[in-house]
Design a protein that fits this description.
CATH architecture: Alpha-Beta Barrel
Helix content: 55-70%
Bound molecules: flavin-adenine dinucleotide
Number of domains: 1
Number of strands: 8
Strand order of the largest sheet: 1-2-3-4-5-6-7-8
Low-confidence stretches: 1-53
Length: 488
Amino acid sequence: MARRILATQSKTPKRFFLYTFDRLLNTAASSPAAAFTAASASPLNLTGSPATPTVDFTDTSALFGSLSTLELLRAAANLHLAAVGPVVDAGIWIMNSKLMDVELIREAILGSVKHTFYRHFCAGEDDAAVRKTVRRLHDVGLRSMLDYALEYADDEESCDRNLDGFLKTIEAIKSLPPGSASFVVAKVSAICPLRLLERVSDLLRWQHKNPCLNLPWKFKTLPIFSDSSPLYHTLKHPTPLTPEEEKSLQISHQRLMKICQASADANVPLAIDAEHTKVQPAIDYFTYSAAIDYNKDHNPIVYGTVQAYLKDAKDRLLLVTKAADNMKIPLGIKLVRGAYMSSESKLALSLGFPSPIHDTILDTHSCYNGCASFLLDNVVKSSSGVILATHNVESGKLAAAKAYEIGIGKLKHKLEFAQLYGMSEALSFGLRNAGFQVSKYMPFGPVDMVMPYLLRRAEENRGLLSTSNLDRKLMRKEMARRVKDCMR
Ligand SMILES: Cc1cc2nc3c(=O)[nH]c(=O)nc-3n(C[C@H](O)[C@H](O)[C@H](O)COP(=O)(O)OP(=O)(O)OC[C@H]3O[C@@H](n4cnc5c(N)ncnc54)[C@H](O)[C@@H]3O)c2cc1C
């Protein structure tokens, strides 16, 4: 079937492309690494120029035509403000300061944030507001990934409260127009106490080093580590889980199962966020064991997240894909670069180990593009699904060109591009105009709950804010065009 689409859509010299494609499909790679190299070595891989320029930024009326001038003005103003380093610095300082303990000051700050950054980057405070935002996006051809923006939990009561929030989010999706909500987002650290995630990660790492270690609580899962995974977080034999910890693990697992079941019932896939490497092994363990239970009948319900900034990302992705293939499980993967840059490097340095993050940004770009290429090939070959979450225009364009070339259709294959709500509008609309499914990742919830999350994002993605340069430039161009039109 892929070949049929390919034959009708490809604009590259057909014989050359079919040869490459057949070779890719038929190459019996001897190892996961060989499979990856084979995919990346294709002339249509994501390291060269796209053969078909499908994402176009030249026509600003086609990009922003669905936004009113007021919406455009507001978006441009907020992006300009967010790009001013001292404004972001002051915001982070104030939110973390004791000033926030003074009721009046707190109200004033949250009030002004609500009408600026919150309004720009968040979907709303309650069900009604979120529904309105989702419908507005749906009307302009974008979908929504709903993220009830919770921070990590320390105790069982908070985990239960958070579970309730996730379940209500899934329930609310049922009353939205079909297809308008593409995914529901969850963080494992919001439903399992953080300390327990650290303990479980330690034990999983120790078992990887010492395969004879028995972990009686462990369910069947997909590979969590590769030979290149750093294990420096666990330098000595961790003690086994206590009966209380085992009980807490079991309850946390049940919470995740409830979320998965609700997602399956609503037929809305669940995207589980990746966090920092100290707890990520436990998050992958939870995610992949849930995927084994819920990803059935060519329908991946549970999506895990791979962070391409990690040096071992590619190797782990290959192992997990191969294992899922062998077990006939449709795999769901969200690919991101990663948002914990500074804390990862700091932790590794403090323990005397090299950072787990690629030494250069170019290595990260190349890893992201290589993994995206590999995942797109996998989407064609199997019933797996992929979310390419990025604001990077080059990565977006390259992936779009490859997806187009290998015939990944809008409905037949599970490919979703995704950007944060309020970020990279030009890329989102450009991809939409090129015929792809595009989602906005939308945090929502009360202002005071969401703001720490947004500020953490701003802090971690300081460089990312400058990616709004393109948006600001194109928005200015579109506003000038509209003014000129009015004066004619
Ligand atoms: C829909 C969506 C979901 C997301 N979910 C997650 C998630 O679950 N977990 C998570 O961790 N993040 C998540 N993110 C955040 C994502 O990781 C950030 O968007 C990312 O940090 C920016 O990458 P980009 O692809 O947008 O590319 P760009 O805009 O090109 O960003 C590049 C950034 O990468 C960073 N970087 C990476 N490697 C290096 C290096 N070696 N040297 C220097 N800088 C480097 C820098 O901060 C730089 O600013 C998500 C993002 C989106 C859009």
